[in-house]
Amino acid sequence: MKTNFPVIFLLFFFCYANTGFSQGFVVAKSKTQRVEVELLKYKAKVVIDNNIAHVEIDQEFFNPSANSVQANYYFVFPAGGRVNSCTLELEGAVFGGELMEKKQSTQLCFAFIKDGFSPSFFDLMDRQWFQVNAYQIPAKEKRSITFKYSQILNTEGGLTRLDFPRYPGNLQRRAFEITSGRGLKNYTVIASTAVSLEGLSDLKKDAVAFEKSFKVTLLSDSYIKNIYSPNCNINIDRKNRSRVNISVNNKDLLSNDLVLYYAQDEKDISCNVLSYRPDESKDGYFMLLASPLNPVPKSKILPKDIIFVLDVSGSMAGEKLKFAQNGLKRSIKNLNRDDYFNIITYGSAIKIYQKNLVKASEFSTDACEYVEALVSGGGTNINAALLTAFSIKPKYDKIKQIIFITDGVPTVGVTDTFTILENVKGLNAYDYQIHTFAIKSEVDAKLLQSLTSLTSGHSEYVQRLSQLSDRLVQFIKSVKSPVLGSINFSVSNAELRDVFGNNYLNIYQNAKIIIVGRYKQPGQFNLYLSGNGQNGEKKLQFDITFAQSSNENIFIKYIWQKRKLGFSLEKHKVFSKSEYEYFRKELSPLLDDFDVSTEKNDEFTGEKVIARIETLKSLKEAVSFNQTINTKTKNINNRIFKLNTDGYWQDTAISLESKDSDHGLHLKYGGKAYFDLAKEISVLRPFLALGNRLDLSHAGYHIKIDKYGLEEISRLPF
User: Fold this and answer.
1) What is the C-alpha separation between 294 and 267, in angstroms, rounded?
2) Model confidence pLDDT, tens digit, residues 629-682
3) In whole angstroms, what is the distance from residue 17 CA to residue 405 CA?
4) Closest CA to 162 of 223, 101, 241, 246
5) Which residues contact 33 (CB under 8 A, 6 or more apart)?
6) 3-state helix, strand and coil shares in percent for the chain, rounded to the nearest 5
7) Between the chain's N and C termini, which has fewer beta carbons within 10 Å?
């Protein structure tokens, strides 16, 4: 096919800083016209039925100009899976089109970039494209396009994967002048892209939001479990065991393609493993996902032992105590009938509701009346409150939890943080898991964080009093239905290292366990998952595979890095020389991106420290990967790029690999050497897609790209 057209105008894509693409875009051809075709509507519906995705995308375009526009329609298929069939309807009429070979689409991408369009097209090379030629959008009229296709999805490690491209840019109509590019500088493009719009001139302020929607429905003959997205926040609406509706955060779909995994089986608990090993000479990375049936049969739900420990010191007087009382009463009412609980209140003195744990079905009403009558006063005897809780014998000894609520620091009895923590280590004889709820910023953040770390608990910092009740109840609901307690996992004959869980001991109905780590040997292994079940210890076995070589699932490495960083920074205030070197070389870019400090003399008071601890918590419990960390930081294939003050996307690896090297290569954006680089070194294409001003590192060379570099060179040096 012919790939060099005269002058083309691109609706839906535009040039700047890898701002993103979507499926379904229009290229309008004209040598003389000012083309202003606008996207008015974008609706996507995906129905996945037993691993076959049926996709339907409705779009509506409007031509506000006085002239008819001739256009080509292109559809770019996602990278994963195999396209089974596709059709396009224009105003209800079915159109034939061409399913392009990957070689053709790659040539077309090069043609677009050479004609002055965004280097973001490098992201679409080696994909399969569908093309419909020369359809008309009459003047002052709308045209609706419906594109449908079916795709057979890939399955790995028992997990089926859906890839779906991001929304069309920032979901706004924006008009701006092109200030660079060949042959296009005098024209205006109306586009719906540009998540980041820095550097664009003459930006109109009257942007209008699109009509938009996106829905995913999962259907299966088996239970649907382990639903997980590594790069988007998803909301799961489970209709029954084999039908699930999923919605995606719109903001996530602005900057990320949706990647969605799910498993299908009839086991009480599913366990699936993904792996990533780009270099066979080095250890690989793995991610383990485990989740139970949902909903869990009542017969399989474990009863819980819960002790509520509430601060009623003088500082809790007024609104604080009122919201705490409300949250505590609602939490008690949300316990299961067979759960056992107790209440401890502490000021200067310690008071206990009942001598032993009592059954929720019998005492919840009385306990709520007890809570309602509480009054505040005195100091804060945290140590004595914890020791009292530790002395209460559990009823079931399967799920044992302390819910610890406070707004302050120890002021009565033992007040030394180190001594309190030593008591927790030595005197928590029944191994209670401690979950802390801190009110405002005057708390001893170091103490509370250490309590949860020592016992694999959950921590919350509530800055607004009005949120306390809801946050407490929300947590109680999240742990309402445990199915396996005190879990452990092991892999037979496999050498694992740097394994990090998401800091929970138990498996609950509405949550999944996600564990990441590194493995030395590839191959097939037996994975054992054990814990406290309904009838004693339960041990499950799963067959898993660690890949010999895999360039898929790069997000696993990034999530592993975040967790390692979080756990390490929490453990060490001062690194040894070897630890410091490791962090400097491998994780140092993340230190800036997540705003964490490695300074020795951190003061654990005030909002600044709580913010730091919350950041560490988010690192330790990381489950997602976002390519766009912020507007000036991107993670491209596990390489961090930052937008510097000169407008260059700078590879942070430069300072580590080639800052002091004499090997440099300065190329002109859009020149012959630039395109030779893109054609010959395909691994660089995702980086080149960032924009027309780059500093990047490859094979020991510092490569700079801008309008001042060399247009041609005799040959590439690597």
Assistant:
1) 11
2) 666 778 787 788 888 999 999 988 775 544 555 578 999 999 999 999 999 999
3) 46
4) 246
5) 65, 67, 69
6) 25, 35, 40
7) N
